[in-house]
Design brief:
The complex is a heterodimer of chains A (about 260) and B (about 450). Chain A is mainly alpha-helical and about 260 residues long. Helices cover about 50% and strands about 5% of the residues of chain A. In chain A, strand 3 (about 200) and strand 4 (about 200-205) form a beta hairpin. Chain B is about 75% helix and about 0% strand. Chain B has 15 helices and no strands. The two termini of chain B are about 15 Å apart. Classes of the chains: A mainly alpha (about 260), B mainly alpha (about 450). Chains A and B meet through helix 1, helix 2, strand 1 and strand 2 of A and helix 2, helix 3, helix 7, helix 8 and helix 9 of B.
């Protein structure tokens, strides 16, 4: 190879790649507004981004998969966990963490609201169906597997408000389960039990999976657990949920009915 | 034995600060690994969150590598341009400024003063000081080159790389309203640094060193330098697209990023082949076998870390599952180590004996430290990789929760912690060795 050829490789390689890259950057700028729903980029969302950066959240959590890997990815956290749960996690991290702790950050009520708006917006960015644990195929299957959701996937009990799409399926999957069964199930949803517990692959994973809890524990045991978790499991990290007697009766009825039969995928 | 140019001496304090920061960086890394393995009490997490230590760990990496590069450039430039540096005083001022800013940034992180963008957490006022430091450096290097009558490819690559490096840093300064755009330009700093600007600087330093230690003619080395750089930039610039798969950018990035980054190992293979060829065809026997070992080790681990490990998770179909997992951590560690850490350490081992006037030094300790560090890093990467595979399968493929996966990964973080302690020991040994090099006892029958 001559020096001339070598130089030619250098200039051609550099310039061609740079031209392609800059051209696509131009095009990306034209398309990014639609892909990220930039019209919904309100001042509140932008203030939320400032909050996200102010407290250096990104050096423990990833967002869009970028950042640090010490805590869960936050791209879909709003849709996956629900607003109440995210709020709890930020204000009182010790209530949601187990063996890996999250630091307390002194957010004001306004900062918290902005941050939630930011998360909500981020969850709607078109990421080509990333992250894989929240991909549409999985969410639809989870929603369809709920009793009472009818034969149609993601239909039936999900309500008449049109087809449920995107990451709202997380919420839909919970509601389908609750509305199809009755008061106890609705209470389970309302009291935020899903934040820690799973039923049929829906819900959190800090606490035990309750898909078959009715087969494992008697109604009496479930009842005393709801009064005082440590009375049944001395190592329980759950706090007493503070239910009225009537609420407890409904919830016990619902939970003891969960035997996992027929609802497994 | 004296230095060819007295101004080369400014390199020494740069090296000293760089290696001390290196040790601190590794020590903090051990703490981070331990934080993954054990339960830190809540009060401790509140006092010193993981995010703070992580910001320190990564910023120290960037700072010490850059200071190492700067010192190396100040060492080699007088010999390359055949004249003394434009201003040694400015070089000392620049070091004081950058090191001072670094210390302020570290203290700031502990106090919660942060821009909140990973790897670029330094708050804006300090950013401006960094830019000022970079401008002093560019000015000093540029003036030295301008006043020299020599124009070499190595000098061109060096200057091009430094201008490129400084220019890309500017994309870090604005506040971006849209998170997707924010990350888009974040990669202009991070990716275009490590797979663009830094490669230019590193290739120039490596080429210069190889000419020095092998005696291979400059024309040959510089010809291949053109080809290496052409391939690096061809694959590296458009290869930035492999970070744009899932951030809310158009779908064509999956093709562009996938194709160009699949080619990214090529220049690294060429670099390894060239290095081995130059060493085999060497016309002089190098004074230091250790520097030669570094040159080969660097080329091999550069290929393994940046090339192979990067390649295996760069294709979109795989990256969909591995993106943002411990697989990324594994790649990051071995890639930085192979491409830039070893380059810096090699340069220190080449230049420090000369700065101290030692013709040939006792290499046994340094050689042991080289192997210790390199093997520990390979093992640590493997452990990160194992954790990453578990995470990918449990969290992403099976869809079980994040903490469910982390629980299964704990074992591997214990391994990483132990290896981190070993790495720290190796780093301390190497730094002590660099500070206390002793002349070799006259070897039997060595031509030097």
């Amino acid at each position: 190879m001559t020096v001339k050829t070598a130089k030619w490789i250098f200039y051609f390689g550099t310039i061609s790649s740079a031209i392609l890259f800059l051209a696509l950057t131009w095009d990306t700028h034209n398309e990014v507004a639609a892909l990220t729903h930039a019209d919904k980029l309100s001042e509140e969302v932008i203030a939320g981004k400032h909050v996200f950066q102010k407290y250096n959240c990104n050096d423990c959590h990833t967002i869009l998969g970028f950042g640090s890997y010490y805590g869960p990815d936050l791209t879909t956290v709003y849709q996956r966990r629900g607003e109440a749960r995210v709020r709890t996690a930020i204000l009182t991290p010790e209530r949601v963490t187990t063996w890996r702790k999250m630091a307390h950050k002194p957010l004001s009520e306004m900062e918290l609201a902005d941050l939630l708006a930011f998360f909500r917006w981020v969850g709607q960015i078109d990421t080509h169906d990333w992250p894989p644990q929240d991909r549409q195929v999985r969410l639809r299957a989870a929603a369809a597997a709920q009793p009472g959701s009818g034969a149609e996937p993601a239909g039936g009990a999900l309500g008449a408000s049109g087809p449920v799409q995107g990451r709202d399926l997380h919420t839909a999957a919970r509601r389908a389960l609750a509305a199809g069964i009755g008061t106890g199930a609705e209470l389970f949803r309302e009291k935020g039990c899903f934040d820690c517990h799973r039923i049929n692959q829906v819900g959190g994973d800090e606490g035990p999976d309750l898909t078959r809890v009715g087969a494992r524990l008697t109604a009496e045991r479930i009842d005393s657990l709801l009064v005082n978790p440590a009375s049944v499991n001395p190592r329980a990290e759950m706090e007493a949920p503070g239910l009225s007697a009537a609420e407890r009766t409904e919830l016990v009825r619902f939970l003891s009915g969960l035997s996992g039969g027929g609802n497994q995928q | 034995m004296t230095l060819a140019y007295p101004s080369q001496r400014v390199a020494r304090p740069y090296f000293v600060v760089a290696v001390l920061l290196f040790v601190l960086q590794v020590a903090l890394g051990v703490w981070l690994a331990l934080s993954y393995a054990v339960t830190m009490p809540q009060w401790l997490v509140d006092a010193l969150p993981f995010s703070t230590t992580r910001a320190m760990h990564t910023n120290l990496l960037v700072l010490w590598l850059l200071l190492g590069f700067m010192g190396s450039v100040y060492y080699m430039l007088p010999e390359e341009s055949e004249r003394d540096l434009h201003s040694p005083a400015l070089a000392y001022l620049q070091l004081a400024l950058l090191a001072g800013t670094g210390v302020a940034a570290l203290v700031g992180f502990v106090l919660g003063w942060s821009k909140g963008k990973p790897l670029l957490e330094i708050p804006r006022p300090l950013d401006l000081l960094i830019v000022l430091g970079a401008l002093i450096f560019l000015f000093n290097v540029g003036m030295t080159m301008l006043r020299s009558r020599r124009r070499t490819v190595i000098m061109g690559s060096l200057l091009g790389g430094l201008v490129f490096l400084a220019a890309m840093y500017l994309f870090n300064l604005p506040f971006y309203r849209n998170l997707s755009i924010d990350w888009y330009y974040w990669w202009w700093v991070i990716h275009l640094w490590v797979e663009g600007a830094w490669e230019l600087v590193a290739a120039a330093l490596t080429a210069w060193l190889l000419i020095r230690i092998t005696g291979v003619p400059r024309e040959t080395v510089e010809k291949w330098l053109y080809v290496e750089l052409g391939l690096f930039l061809f694959t590296g610039i458009a290869g930035t697209g492999h970070h744009y798969y899932w951030l809310g950018a158009p779908k064509y990035w999956l093709w562009v990023g996938g194709i160009f980054s699949a080619l990214e190992p090529l220049p690294i293979v060429l670099m390894l082949v060239d290095a081995l060829r130059f060493i085999r065809e060497r016309r002089v026997e190098p004074r230091s076998r250790l520097v030669l070992t570094f040159a080969i080790g660097m080329a091999v681990l550069h290929l393994l870390g940046a090339g192979v490990w990067g390649f295996i998770h760069t294709l979109p179909a795989i990256n969909y599952y591995t993106h943002g997992s411990q697989v990324t951590t594994a790649h990051g560690h071995i890639a930085f180590f192979g491409a830039y850490v070893l380059l810096n350490l090699m340069f220190f081992y080449y230049a420090i004996p000369k700065l101290r006037g030692i013709a040939a030094f006792d290499e046994r300790r340094g050689s042991f430290a080289f192997w210790w560090l390199s093997l520990t890093m390979v093992a640590m990467t493997t452990a990160f990789g194992a954790a990453g595979m578990l995470q990918v399968y449990i969290e992403r493929v099976m869809g079980l929760g994040y903490m469910t996966a982390q629980a299964q990964m704990r074992f591997w973080f214990w391994i990483v912690t132990v290896l981190g302690v070993a790495l720290l020991a190796g780093a301390v040994l190497m730094v002590v060795d660099l500070f206390t090099l002793k002349p070799a006892r006259e070897p039997e029958g060595r031509t030097a």
